[in-house]
Amino acid sequence: MENIYLDNSATTRIDDRVLEEMLPYLKSNYGNASSLYSLGRESKKAIEDARDKVAKILNCKSSEIYFTSGGSESDNTAIKGIARANRKKGNHIITSKIEHRAVLETCKTLEKEGFEITYLDVDRYGRVDIEKLKSVIRKDTILISIMYANNEIGTIQDIEKIGKIARENGIYFHTDAVQAVGILDIDVEKQNIDSLSLSAHKFYGPKGIGVLYVKKNIKFEKFIDGGHQERNKRAGTENVANIVGLAKALEIATESLQEHKNKISSLRDYFESNLKSKIENVTINGDIENRLPGNSNILFLGVNGQDLLLNLDMLGICVSSGSACTSGSIDPSHVLTAIGLDEEKAKSSIRISIGKYNTKEEIDFLVKSLIEIVNRQRNV
Ligand SMILES: *Cc1c(COP(=O)(O)O)cnc(C)c1O
Q: 75, 79, 186, 315: which could form a disulfide with 102 (CB 3.0–4.6 Å)?
């Protein structure tokens, strides 16, 4: 059975062009980038070329780009690294209640070290209130960490404005842009971003590789002790193939940004209007006006989301209930709870995330399947 993959916020299928670009570095060009002979120097050059490409796309300097193992590591390193290195300046960090666990759990760790964290509420659309943000800033606030776009409901924050407020107050601004990069515009200069996380597997690149951007002159603790790789910040032999793949995937995504955005959002709109015309009592969670183009988080009143997911799986359709990272547990999603859904409603919601390989036929099959399953479940 062919899978109908509609969980592109969890991860994406690698683009064939990305794989092609990576293969030589897994086969013949296997030199260690720290070695001085030409086989090693080729690897070194491939890494630095990739770094230049990424920097150009983000609009920063190559020396501000660090390759990591992915979004989680980048978030951990940015937040812990900046907080610990700037402790003399202050002890207070501001974030939101709808961040990815990579940010929330990192903040919890810092709380144990004595940092004070303010977890901002969001409104029913998942938006951070800018006035509220301003009001919780203190003299000892050193860092604000707000995600660019949410992985569950897709809500996009006004990060340019948040970055501006942070800068005016002499506070560093980190953004988890893992869901945004590759589909939304990004420019760290224009958007006043001091540090940023991205992850290749969310935009048709390989898993296990990400980027941390940190603006020059911002102190942060190194994350792995050892060799001198990544300008002494992250020791360990570089994953050349993955680094090359990340840069290629980012390049492809950037070239075709508008085209994919249009394709994906029109498929999503087609899905939602079809669904709403054919099933009663469905609500779209989050910010309909201002969300990721492929995101559709839907509440099916009176239906268990987990059962719905499993029934769709039997038909080869992959979707997510709540966040992918918490789907092993039965807790309601912290994001849906934060936008005001009660436990029952949160557990009656599923996330469909459409990507560039999805087709209209797949959406038709999804709608047809949903009608059958939802009606069956509501009748028992
Ligand atoms: C997927 C995701 C992460 C984690 O990235 P990994 O590369 O899987 O570690 C962090 N933040 C957001 C918003 C994500 O969607």
A: 75
Catalytic site residue 325? yes
- What letter would DSSP give residue 202? G
Alpha carbons within 13 angstroms on the beta-carbon side of residue 224 total: 17
Ligand 1 pocket residue status of 154, Cβ below 6 Å: no
Quote the ligand 1 centre to 193 CA distance (angstroms): 18
Centre a 10 Å sphere on the Cβ of residue 250 and count the other Cβ atoms it contains. Answer: 26
Neighbours of 85 (CB within 10 A): 15
pTM reported for the whole predicted model: 0.97
Q: Where are the domains of the chain?
A: 4-12+257-379, 16-255
Tell me if 205 CB under 6 Å of ligand 1: no
Could you tell me the fold of the domain covering 4-12+257-379?
Aspartate Aminotransferase, domain 1 (3.90.1150)
Within 8 A by CB and 6+ apart from 76, the residues are 102, 106, 223
